[in-house]
User: Fold this.
Amino acid sequence: MLTFAPDKKRRKFTGVFKIFQMSHLTIDQKKAIFTKYGGSATNTGSVEAQVAHITQRISQISSHLQANKHDHSTQRGLMRLVGQRKRLLAYLQKHNLQGYRALIEQLGLRK
Assistant:
């Protein structure tokens, strides 16, 4: 059986793991997004509100990844969110073309 001295055991993982402080959207920020794009703070199911919310999350994660280039699990989550936004935008384009164009212009997604 291996035994470690108490001081060596405490220092075993010191400095190995970084603690990432990624800021999430607050409840007030989410309500503002849903009010602006969904019509009311409780209308979280509208496609426009979901796309706006995902866009905010994508921008936050992108800034996090610029500082932490080797955070691969967050990079995978970012790709998942981009795909989800792409599917929602395709749905919106198919069912409400004018709403799609207005949302793209408001969010500044296409140049």
